[in-house]
């Protein structure tokens, strides 16, 4: 097995990559598909003044919340910022910058960054604060707003399986933003639950080709926390909701 891309742990994989003021993309949706080992290693590194691109910023005590709580994040580029009291407090007191994006726009900006497309037009956000200060243009009688790509100095992603060449397979909803982010980082580091021999993965099942992945680690004891187990109150016997 080739070991050129395989690192023993998260701290080793991040060595020589980090610098203050950098932009980091972090995969995950809620707490699904989070780089559970790379985020604590970022905290331990002490790197600061970060711009972080992620759908959200973790939850109390977990995920990117750790970096937020440690004062390492200067700006978030996100889609969903609810249910995070620390995030709200820092933003409302002027200690955190926020660039809020519609979720589909955020995903497409990341995909565009990985594909080398500097800008695109979308109807989403036209006529709202999302479009303020941005160019608009009419196509077929409809107004569209111009959005620009997103790229990062470092992308950290979480996959289910990977081989030592960096080919990645994600599992179900834990895929979310991870594949697009893997393409949009100057350096991409992946953590996986299992590293297998090259040639073991069925080529038709690979979601991220190894050419996009620079370093890979195998994590252990993933918590895979769930933010909300239900979305409605459970009925008791004889009660309807």
Automatic annotation (TrEMBL):
Matches recorded under InterPro entries: 3-oxoacid_CoA-transf_A, CoA_trans_fam_I, NagB/RpiA_transferase-like
A Pfam family that this protein carries is CoA_trans
Top-rank lineage group of the source organism: Bacteria
Keyword Transferase assigned to the entry: answer is: yes
Q: Name one GO molecular function term.
A: CoA-transferase activity
- Assigned keywords, A-Z: Transferase
Protease as a keyword of this entry, yes or no, is: no
Which NCBIfam families does this entry report, sorted A to Z? Answer: pcaI_scoA_fam
Q: Quote the protein name from its UniProt record.
A: CoA transferase subunit A
- What organism does this protein naturally occur in? Lichenifustis flavocetrariae
């Amino acid at each position: 097995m080739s070991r050129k891309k395989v690192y023993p742990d998260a701290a080793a994989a991040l060595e020589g990559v980090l610098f203050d003021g950098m932009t980091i993309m972090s995969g995950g949706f809620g707490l699904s598909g989070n780089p559970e080992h790379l985020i604590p290693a970022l905290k331990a590194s002490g790197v600061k003044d970060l711009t972080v691109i992620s759908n959200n910023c973790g939850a109390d005590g977990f995920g990117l919340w750790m970096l937020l709580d440690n004062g390492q994040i200067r700006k978030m580029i996100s889609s969903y910022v609810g249910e995070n009291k620390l995030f709200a407090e820092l933003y409302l007191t002027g200690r955190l910058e926020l660039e809020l994006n519609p979720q589909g726009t955020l995903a497409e900006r990341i995909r565009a960054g990985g594909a080398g497309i500097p800008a695109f037009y979308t109807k989403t956000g036209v006529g709202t604060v999302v479009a303020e200060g941005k160019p608009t243009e009419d196509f077929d009688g409809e107004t569209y707003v111009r959005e620009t790509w997103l790229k990062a100095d470092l992308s950290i992603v979480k996959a289910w399986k990977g081989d030592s060449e960096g080919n990645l397979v994600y599992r179900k909803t834990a895929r979310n933003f991870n594949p697009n982010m893997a393409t949009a980082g100057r350096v991409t580091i992946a953590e996986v639950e299992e590293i297998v021999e090259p040639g073991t993965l069925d080529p038709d099942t690979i979601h991220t080709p190894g050419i996009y992945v620079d370093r890979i680690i195998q994590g252990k004891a993933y918590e895979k926390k769930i933010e909300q187990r239900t979305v409605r109150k459970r009925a008791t016997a004889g009660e309807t909701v």
